[in-house]
Amino acid sequence: MDQTAFRVQALQIIERWPEWRWIPEGYMQLRWTFAGKCQEAASGDVVDEDVHIVWSQSYRVPVLYMHLSHSDGASFTVEEAFDFVSRNQMASSSSLGDPWSFLTKTEHPVLGVPFLHVHPCRTPDLMALFAREGSAAPLFTWLSLVMSLIGVRVPGAVASAFVQEGPAANGRSEEGDDGLPPDELTFPAP
Amino acid sequence: MADFFSSGGLWRDEVLVSVTLDPEERTTISNPEPYFCLVPRVSYFPLVLPEIERYFRALLPAGTTFDATKDLPWLEVQGQPLRWQHPVGCLYDLYTAGKADVSAPLPLVLHLRKFPTATIIPMHSPEAVRAEFMQMVKEATFLRDGNIKAVNSLVKEQTEQIIAAMTNRDYALFERLTEAFRGQEPLRFPIRVHLPGTTHVQLPILAAEMPAECTLGDVMARLLPTLFPSPAPAEGSPAVVAFGAALPLSTPVGWLLRRMAYPDQFLHLAVPQLPPGAPPCPTRPRCPPSSGPPPHRPPRRG
Fold first, then answer.
1. How many Cα atoms sit within 13 Å of B39 on the Cβ side?
2. Given pLDDT bands bounded at 50, 70 and 90, which one contains residue B2?
3. Autophagy protein ATG5 UblB domain: which residues (chain B) (predicted)?
4. What's residue A74's pLDDT?
5. Which site from A93, B14, B139, B271 is most exposed, i.e. has the minimal number of CB atoms within 10 Å?
6. Candidate from A18, A57, A153 with C-beta closest to B302
7. Selected residue with higher pLDDT from A83 and B48
């Protein structure tokens, strides 16, 4: 995948999953508030979650960046963020490890401010794996995986759209391979 | 024959830094003397923070209290939080090069309160510095080789040795341990340009797409075409600085990568002064953090 393909596939995803939007500087953004069970801070605390998918020029893969802040605007500390992510991480991805092993704080490549990110050094291998398995929409496949790491469920309608539709490739079966219900996706471990 | 570069001359270079205390802390102390220190160019500011902190904390009145979670120390330069994940040398060049008195120390301010979590990354342990350093090494290796096998094939002990050699500035040992990182001719150049007031600029430049004897000018013209419309030096083109030296645009990039890369395997270049009238960020618009109402229908959580 190159940067142009990234943009094309990102826009395809955004079309079907309208909570995302495309930022002209070249990345996808999902921003929403989560009123949930953040027990340590204050119960009923509203969490502002900002998730960006940015193309890495160096690794030539998409990279997940996320920023969590409290309702008063204060950024989550690294500990608070890991706690939040591990409580929300989906069971299907728990084998991929706890947040300490994959989330690190770094400077957002466009905004220049601290964000957590999933370091891209393993992603090229992962994308190669998807390509070998004939994935018709590698960005979507990758996105579903990282969304499950941070506990965001892919809406069933979106998943079905990519499993059944998508650019034709390699005579791949149109249905999900493993007979799971459409809104449950599992992936090989990286 | 050992020349200045191959004997680690650049690694021995140190820069003078002066640190004053945040004026808000100076309530009952009349005006503490600044703290001066010589810091290696190839090091990182978080590694000298403890000695700076010790000096000033000793001068605080007894009973001064801090909030353990919010009040982590940080450094300020020219009114901005210092982005201390970058090597000392390139930050020094960025903030002092071009100033009339080149021997003046780089003035920093130590803050002990209200760590600006929205602006800079906390790096209060040697482990944090090591982790950042190794990520840079991985990225440089990926750019050079197209994969990170050279880094992944290191066993823990080798990584520890490399980091120790870097911290102790043992150039000869470091070069021996990291030979594998510089095996072939690079596929892409690990070059990062630091500009005032913005994030760094770094675009992978495919060596195959550049002229055979690629010069610094060729690279700058590719990375920052508005500042460097042509690879040849022109009237008014800004200085490109590394290790305190304004580099001629005719310098071969291969030579620079072999001789003037930092321990993290990147060639960090500073362009400390933009010509008057240049846009603040020549290749990327500086956009404020995205604002606007979040969508009213959040995605389902697991």
1. 29
2. low
3. 189-271
4. 80
5. B14
6. A153
7. B48
- With residue A153 as reference, give the H or E element that holds it: none
Tell me the angle at which helices A3-16 and A156-164 cross, rounded to the nearest 10 degrees. 130
One-character DSSP codes across B117-170: TTTS----SHHHHHHHHHHHHHHHHHHHHSS-HHHHT--HHHHHHHHHHHHTT-
Domains (range + CATH), chain B: 2-111 (3.10.20.620)
**Closest-CA distance of chain A to residue B32, Å:** 32
Would you say residue A54 has pLDDT above 70? yes
Asked whether residue A184 is assigned to any structural domain, the reply reads: no
Q: Name, in order, each residue with C-beta under 8 angstroms of A63's C-beta and a sequence gap of 6 or more.
A: A53, A54, A55, A56, A117, A118, A120, A123
Residue A122: CATH number of its domain: 3.30.1460.50
Instruction: Give how many domains chain A has, as a whole number.
Output: 1
Whole-number pLDDT of residue A125: 84
* pLDDT score, position A185: 30
Asked if residue B60 has pLDDT above 80, the reply is yes
Note down the domain range covering A55.
3-165
In the block, which residue shows the tokens 């800004």?
B238
> Chain-centre distance of CA B103, in angstroms?
20
A179: in domain:
no
CA B100/CA B96 separation, integer angstroms? 9
User: Looking at this predicted complex, what is its ipTM?
Assistant: 0.82
What is the percent of chain A where pLDDT is above 90?
A: 7
Residue B110 and residue B55: Cα distance in Å, rounded? Answer: 11
Task: Write out pLDDT tens, residues B190-216.
Answer: 999 998 876 667 777 777 788 888 999
As a whole number of Å, the CA-based R_g of chain B is: 21
Q: Which helix (H) or strand (E) element contains residue B196? A: none
The alpha-carbon gap from A175 to the nearest alpha carbon of chain B, in Å, equals: 23
Q: Specify whether A121 is catalytic.
A: yes
| pTM for the full predicted model | 0.84
Among residues A132, A140, A130, which one has the least CA distance to residue A161?
Answer: A140
Cα–Cα distance between B139 and B131 in angstroms, integer? 12
> Which chain B residues contact residue A151 at CB under 8 A?
301-302
The verdict on residue A183 lying in a domain is no
- Asked if B120 and A152 come within 8 Å (Cβ–Cβ), the reply is no
